[in-house]
Amino acid sequence: MRQQRPTIAFAALVLASTVVFGLAGHLAAKSFIRHQQARQLDELTEVVLRRSEFAVEFAAASLTELGKRDAVNCEPATLQAIRLHVYQRSAIKDVRLVNPDGSVICSAYSETLEFDEGWVDRREMLASRDGKLSLFRVQQFGGDALGVLRDINSSAALVAIVGINASLFDIMPSELRGHSEVTLSLSNGEKLGEFQLDADQPRRNSKRFDRSSDRYPLHTTIEVDGAVLSAWNSEAYWPALAVAAGLGALFGILLGRSRRTEGPVADLDRGLTAGEFKPYYQPVFDLRTREIKGCEILARWVREDGSVVPPMNFIPLAESSGRIQAMTWQILKSALSDLRPLLKADKDFKLSFNVVPKHLLSAGFVETLRRTVLTAKVATRQIVIEVTERDELDDLARAAAVVAELREYGFHVAIDDVGVGHSGLSRLKGLGANTIKIDKFFVDTITVDASTTTIVEMLVALAKDFRMTVVAEGIETEEQLRALVASGVETGQGYLVAAPLPFAKFSELMAPRHAAAAQANDAALVA
């Protein structure tokens, strides 16, 4: 009987802990669902804002190019050149030459003036943060457009009329599309465009999500029916409740056994000490020929028992705890050791690795990178540093100086996650990188969303203006590949060719390439 008492007490403790956690799990699950809903809708609102900013950036780049050509008169030859320029840029409907006060002098397509219901003067236009551009609503019979004004000289300015396509705002999940409204407006409240399937559909206790641009006077809003939103993604309730009960049972077991547990940060430290963080390799390939041109190394935690921990389960903790720098160097050294023969045999092959902004700006980053690459006896021009755009660069001037130093030493620099991160295209140019990587979000939607195609084409055109190359991430289907090629993208990566692979599997994938290269060398020697 005495021996049974500890067992009964232990079981009671575990049961009590499970019940308490289970009761708390109900509230936690509801809170979790609401948080996830708000996060996803906040992200969608941000996507609409970024798309709108891209449209402004695209128009601004076009006006700058026209200004360099001295296209600031109403001569027939000049207007013909402007019309050709507009024809090549489907997002722009017209370009007009205006006086300093904003009044129209002439238009590339004079017939579009007939569709204007009104035209604002310069005092009513809204300035951008840098003061180089002014935005305003152009009221037209067929729907409002966005006017983007840039001063060319003291006596004239150019205005691009940007069409606001409703498909730009068609981003809502299927469950919410019929019960929501997506709106783009100027900071003064003037509405530029919206997407709403059924304007007569009443919305009860609607929830509103807002975002304002920090560069342009643009504001986006998503409004969703509260009743429909409460049921959206509710399937997470029972798994969350089960997790809470499981945690309660685990807590009771650990508490009952009085076992001291160490935190997850200590687990990270053990993994670093044991060298358990390994590079996985995903090929970067030419979209037309499928030839593998390089690879990106991605972190995986390979535990002693052989189990692989996905990056989402440890990268955020590594970043917040300051372990990400040691982890990055560990993975890079391992990758350089693995790929040294390939990098030496093929001088055009490039190895890419990710660096968070804080690591890029940390003391001694450039020198440590140089020493690591020189020790591996690899050419610096074969190394690409990918700076993720999801984390904001607090000091752009300092970051640009670091990038300039890296490029002086021969390294290449890419900006990752372009299109869904913090930086605008003007900031990308200021950073001085070689490459932009189009985020998987755009690749996923390029075959189903016409506005995504327009955005990708804008990115390609602007990258060309900035003398950058473009890489598309997350390519999974032949249809996506064809759409990207049609949009001007030349290089990409994704599961269509290969998932991130351990080195042994990556070597098998590259074996035919090595054999072909060897045969070519032998043929050259014989010749």
UniProtKB/TrEMBL annotation:
InterPro entries: CSS-motif_dom, Cyclic-di-GMP_PDE-like, EAL_dom, EAL_sf. Its EC number is 3.1.4.52. It is a multi-pass membrane protein. It catalyses: 3',3'-c-di-GMP + H2O = 5'-phosphoguanylyl(3'->5')guanosine + H(+). Keywords: c-di-GMP, Cell membrane, Hydrolase, Membrane, Transmembrane, Transmembrane helix. Pfam families: CSS-motif, EAL. Residues 261-514 form the EAL domain. GO terms for molecular function: cyclic-guanylate-specific phosphodiesterase activity. The keyword Cell wall biogenesis/degradation does not apply. It comes from the Bacteria. Coiled coil: none annotated. PANTHER family: CYCLIC DI-GMP PHOSPHODIESTERASE PDEB-RELATED, CYCLIC DI-GMP PHOSPHODIESTERASE PDEF. This is cyclic-guanylate-specific phosphodiesterase.
